[in-house]
Specification:
Rossmann fold; two-stranded parallel sheet; alpha/beta; binds S-adenosylmethionine
């Protein structure tokens, strides 16, 4: 099997920030949650009534309040944020969430199950970096990925092993609807058909981690990932959302 059989050379679709910004407007997002905000480039692109951002190390460099009536920024880890705010969020649920915090799959799994619990059935969760392009950016060690990518085209790109969320959700939550989008730079996975009451991931968390720690984090696994999925065009996805929404101009 050649490297190019399945793994794209580059994701050539719309930038993830443009997709999420447009999605927030198409779904008339009221309450938005972003885990991992950093400089706020993506948060700024979102239009909503209330924007909630969580990051233990904010490094804001733009106007994250743009397009929003209220913003709430929590300078803490996502685990601590959910531990403190879960019940409050259950009364004012999230419409659209973007998970882009720690790029290790066990963190993203917890972020996903905690976020789903405070969503509605028709909310949308988008996950970043789950569609890597080589075996250097998937390292669990960000420093190692940085050093090894120094002379390569994807210099300093780090996705970690959050790609494992795809096989985990396919196996344990086949009820979810997953779209795999070719967003620049490292793809976007959009999850719909949520079930905020589901306890499957929570109940099986420890055994899922044992099972997926044993799955190699290597190029063969990434090939299999792409072989088993249908990569969609981000613009087509947005067009389908636009076509399906009720006419509320
Ligand atoms: C790739 S950056 C986010 C970029 C931002 N979402 C965007 O698109 O503009 C990842 C961020 O996740 C944050 N992060 C790391 N560990 C985290 C955790 N446990 N909980 C929440 N955020 C975390 C980092 O501090 C970093 O700022």
């Amino acid at each position: 099997m050649d490297r190019d059989d399945f793994i794209p050379e580059l994701h050539t679709g719309k930038d993830y920030k443009d997709v999420l910004g447009e999605l927030s407007r198409l779904v008339s997002c009221r309450r938005y949650l972003e885990i991992g905000v950093s400089g706020g480039d993506n948060f700024q692109a979102i239009t909503c009534l209330e924007g909630i951002g969580v990051d233990p190390y904010f490094a804001l460099s733009c106007n994250v309040a743009a397009g929003k009536r209220r913003i709430y920024l929590y300078q803490t880890s996502s685990d601590k944020f959910f531990a403190k705010n879960k019940f409050k969020l259950m009364f004012s649920r999230i419409d659209l969430a973007f998970l882009d915090g720690m790029h290790l799959y066990e963190f993203l799994l917890r972020d996903f199950m905690n976020t789903e619990a405070v969503c509605r059935k028709d909310s949308i969760i988008a996950m970043h970096d789950c569609l890597p392009l080589n075996d250097i950016m998937i390292s669990r060690d960000m420093q190692q990925a940085a050093v090894e990518s120094e002379a390569l085209p994807f210099r300093h790109w780090w996705t970690g092993d959050v790609w494992k969320l795809i096989p985990i959700l396919k196996k344990y939550r086949p009820d979810l609807e997953l779209d795999f989008l070719n967003c620049y730079p490292t793809g976007l996975v959009v999850v719909r058909g949520l079930n905020p009451r589901s306890r499957i991931l929570r109940r099986n968390y420890t055994s899922i981690i044992s099972e997926f720690d044993a799955v190699p984090n290597d190029l063969d696994s990434i090939r299999t990932l792409y072989r088993d999925m249908k990569l969609g065009d981000a613009a087509d996805f947005l067009e389908a959302i636009r076509g399906a929404r009720p006419n509320r101009r």
